[in-house]
Amino acid sequence: MSTGNMNLTLKIWRQKNNKAKGNLVDYKISEISPDMSFLEMFDVLNEQLINKGEEPVVFDHDCREGICGACSMYINGRPHGPKEGITTCQLHMRSFKDGDTIVVEPWRAKAFPVIKDLTVDRTAFDRIIAAGGFISVNTGNAQDANALPIPKFQADLAFEAAACIGCGACVATCKNASAMLFTSAKISQLALLPQGQPERYRRVQSMVAQMDAEGFGNCTNTGACEAECPKGISLENIARMNRDFYSAKFVSEEEV
Amino acid sequence: MADFNANIPEGELTVKWTKLRSSMPLVNPANKRSIEIVVVGSGLAGASAAATLAEMGYKVKCFCFQDSPRRAHSIAAQGGINAAKNYQNDGDSVYRLFYDTIKGGDYRAREANVHRLAEVSANIIDQCVAQGVPLAREYGGLLDNRSFGGTQVQRTFYAAGQTGQQLLLGAYSALERQIGMGKVEMFTRHEMLEVVKIEGKARGIIARNLITGELERHFGHAVLLGTGGYGNVFYLSTNAMGSNVTAAWKAHKKGAFFGNPCFTQIHPTCIPVSGDHQSKLTLMSESLRNDGRIWVPKKKDDQRKATDIPEDERDYYLERRYPAFGNLVPRDVASRAAKERCDAGYGVGVSKLAVYLDFKANTERYGRIEASVHNIHNPDKETCMRLGRDVIKEKYGNLFDMYKQITGEDPYDLPMRIYPAVHYTMGGLWVDYNLMTTVPGLYALGEANFSDHGANRLGASALMQGLADGYFVIPYTIGSYISKELATKAIPLDHPAFVEAEASVKAILDKFISIKGSKSVDFFHKKLGKIMWEKCGMARNAKGLSEAIVEIQQLRKEFWSDLRVPGSIDEFNPELEKAGRVADFIELGELMCIDALNRNESCGGHFREEYQTEEGEALRDDENYAYVSAWEYKDDVKFELHKEELKFENIKIAQRSYK
Question: What GO biological process, any one, is recorded here (chain A) (predicted)?
Answer without folding.
Answer: aerobic respiration
